[in-house]
Amino acid sequence: MDFDLYNDTFDAFFDVLPEANASVLDIGCGSRNITKYLLSKNPKLQITGADLSKNIIALAKKFLKPDGTVKEHTILILKKQLQP
Question: How far is CA 59 from each of CA 12, 29, 63, 74, rounded to the nearest angstrom?
Fold first, then answer.
């Protein structure tokens, strides 16, 4: 996925963060693309990602560990709740 179109938005996000080591909750985090971009701009961020897909979460964990950009990360699997 090409995130060049979104870089301005992500960069504006950094302008409003209260501190360099801020905590970020990424709901619908997907496989890791936004997390990697945010950490490339500020490796001190504490990012928690959440997604409905177990497969996507597994992919995110696989790709975030080997490249060394994430020392510790939390990725949550949200359960789908069906209304009766």
Answer: 28, 11, 6, 13
